[in-house]
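Recap slide: Glucitol operon activator protein (GutM), sequence and predicted structure.
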Amino acid sequence: MSNHVLILFGVFLVLFLLQSAGGIFQIKDYEKAVRRVNRDGAVGIGQKRGRLLSGGHIVILACDDGGRITGGEAMDGISFLARFHPVSEVYHVRILGRDVREVLLELRSMTKKKQKYYKGYIQALEALEMRA
């Protein structure tokens, strides 16, 4: 085997190990975010898978018994370095303190392209709508 092949194999091995370690940290971060948001009420979770270089997102939203959104966090990005952050609006639409159905109607009135982009948010709101 040539040295070039061994070096290439070593590089791929290191990248694989970094990705694996990053995945473990992301899972732990996800679990913590679900617990934090769960303190605010019933939880709805949605996701949009990213493609090669376009980022996806995972969305965790909470609502009270009356169907008002009480909190939320999202993780956006393409790498294992992405972390959850608080969410209070979606594409200039304020969501905190508003009724789940009202926000869902507003997001569903967007163009199909925008709806596809915000698919994770819509999924989380639909999950909450079923609980409210």
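The radius of gyration is 18 Å.
Residues 107 and 115 are 7 Å apart (CA to CA).
(End of recap.)
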